[in-house]
Amino acid sequence: MRRKDARLLCFFVSFAIIISCAGDSNVLSPEYQPQITNIADNFQLQASGLKNVTQTLKYTWPNSGQIATVNHSSAITGGSGTITIKDAAGTQVYSAPLVASGTVVTSPSGSAGNWTITITLTGISGNLNLRVQKS
Fold first, then answer.
1. For residue 130, what are the contacts with CB-CB under 8 A and spacing of at least 6?
2. What is the pLDDT of residues 104-118, one digit of tens each?
3. Residue 123: inside a domain, yes or no?
4. What is the distance, to the nearest Å, from the Cα of residue 49 to the centroid of all Cα atoms in its chain?
5. Cβ contact 105:135 at 8 Å
6. pLDDT above 70 covers what percent of the chain?
7. What CATH number did the domain enclosing 74 receive?
């Protein structure tokens, strides 16, 4: 490959990466101090001082188990939010509103692998804190 062609290819690859990142719906504004941990068997999301945020956050979470524990600990002062979890086969194993506190276990038993966690925020204000862990 000629040097000019290699530069052009590098430019287009870089441009594609920038464009794909610009549309990432998993990014909360830095002003909310988001802290997201998404590692095998442990997912956690925290954000503070949200003000009228409407956004859908979607994460692929590796779970080596068939069940997960969902721990809610949010302080929502306005709007609403939900969390929906699907197992590796795409079966919904959990869906509920974001609440101030509570720990529940996903049901039914799911397929191990890459699970999908979707958090839907509608005009939400307050603090988010939730954790999903292999059970």
1. 44, 45, 70, 71, 72, 73, 74, 83, 98, 119
2. 999 989 999 999 999
3. yes
4. 18
5. yes
6. 81
7. 2.60.120
